[in-house]
Amino acid sequence: MGLALGGGGGRGIAHIGVLAELESARVPVHVIAGTSAGSLVGVLYAAGLSPEQMLALAMRTKWSDLVQLTMPRVGLVSAARMENLLNEILHNAKLEELPVKVAAVACDLYTGREVVLRQGNAAHAIKASCAVPGIFSPVPHGDALLADGGLVNGVPVNVVREMNADVAIAVRLHQGVQRTHDLNNIFAILSQSFEVMQRSQHMDTPDVLIVPELANHHMGDLAKVMPAYEAGRVAARTALPAILKFLWQ
Fold first, then answer.
1. Residue 153 contacts by C-beta under 8 Å, 6 or more apart in sequence?
2. What is residue 94's three-state secondary structure?
3. In the chain, N or C terminus with fewer CB closer than 10 Å?
4. Partners of 116 in the beta sheet?
């Protein structure tokens, strides 16, 4: 059973609700691939954190805990604080050491190609997968310069398949492009830009698609924790009959 968790910034809290609902229904998760916010939630879950622990972490986390302003040469903010916090939570774990098989998807800015991280420091992989260009500084990684995986693969169903999942459950956080004039801050503009970008991307067809209702929750919003969490639970609950059919086969 594989889970492909899509990107979406603050909307990623909905992934926690999805995992909580799957756990309550005793749906096992053997393989996880995540893009951007999906990599954050996916790696934490693969490391053994429960949905309840992740929800408590989300409730007390502010942007100032994760980023700090930099001289805007390659990005407005550095995610070094996030990396340090994650290393503390994960005890500097490597992806290949985690109890559940997991991958984080990033984009190599030098080549424009998808990079799937399955080995190495877990916090480093999350930082790379979440490095939104122009906002976060890109992350050097060997011969590559990594940025947000949403540039190339918003919902990594193909990666879950490549990791030998028999059943692929996808969680897509993007809501589609909606006409709006409420573009008065950088996060709102970024959120709308990613919606436009996602429209042109191909997503491999999953066995089950979960789409939480997050139309009023933009990517930079970390304040609407419970609404996003509940949206994830509701969407997963709706999809449970389709998921359980695969378990009963």
1. 35, 105, 107, 114, 159, 201
2. strand
3. C
4. 105
Burial class (CB in 10 A: 0-12, 13-18, 19+), 193: middle
> Which of the residues 36, 39, 129, 137 is marked catalytic?
36
Which tokens in the block code for residue 46? 């693969």
Any catalytic annotation for residue 207? no
The number of angstroms, rounded, from the C-alpha of 84 to the middle of its chain's C-alpha atoms is: 18
Q: Please, are residues 27 and 247 in contact by the beta-carbon 8 Å criterion?
A: yes
Per annotation, catalytic residue among 39, 108, 148, 221: 148
Q: Model confidence over 151-179: pLDDT tens digits?
A: 999 999 999 999 999 999 999 998 766 66
Q: 23-40 pLDDT, tens per residue?
A: 999 999 999 999 999 999
Please tell me what DSSP assigns to residue 204. Answer: P
